[in-house]
């Protein structure tokens, strides 16, 4: 019976699910991300927003070892027109993706998604500043 326990422990260690020291195994690092926020009802990019995109591309090219894709996830806030939230979040994501292409990222390296108001950064914003955090495009370097 003891041999079976040792085999199980060795298997867990081989799979990276246990450690020999008894210390917890480090979790995988989250993908580097960048956030581009937008004014209410808008999908137009400003110079400040373009600087965020350029920084993401720079990180993607130089510091993100093993990254092969940029996931572009468009969001809208719940205060924006409910019927148009998904379309607006998609339009925002497409605008950012177009800038990524202008910056030299290959179209095959970009994955665009739109989630509308369904995944807020701030579920119950108290003011416009908090609500602005929901009107965004998240860039995940993968």
Automatic annotation (TrEMBL):
Residues 1-23 form the signal peptide. It holds the Pfam family OmpA. InterPro entries: Bact_OuterMem_StrucFunc, OmpA-like, OmpA-like_sf. The keyword 4Fe-4S does not apply. It comes from the Bacteria. GO terms for cellular component: membrane. Keywords: Membrane, Signal. This is OmpA-like domain-containing protein. It comes from Caldovatus sediminis.
């Amino acid at each position: 019976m003891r041999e079976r326990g040792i085999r199980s422990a060795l298997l867990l260690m081989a799979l990276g699910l246990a450690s020999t020291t008894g210390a917890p195994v480090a979790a995988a690092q989250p993908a580097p991300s960048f956030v581009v926020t937008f004014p209410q009802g808008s999908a137009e990019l400003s110079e400040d927003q373009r600087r965020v995109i350029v920084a993401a591309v720079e990180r993607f090219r130089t510091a993100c070892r093993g990254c092969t894709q940029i996931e572009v996830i468009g969001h809208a806030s719940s205060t924006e027109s409910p019927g148009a939230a998904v379309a607006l979040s998609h339009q925002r994501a497409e605008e950012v993706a177009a800038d990524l292409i202008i910056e030299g990222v290959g179209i095959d390296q970009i994955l665009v998604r739109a989630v509308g108001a369904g995944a807020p950064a701030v579920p119950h914003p108290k003011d416009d500043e908090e609500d602005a955090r929901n009107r965004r495009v998240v860039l995940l370097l993968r």
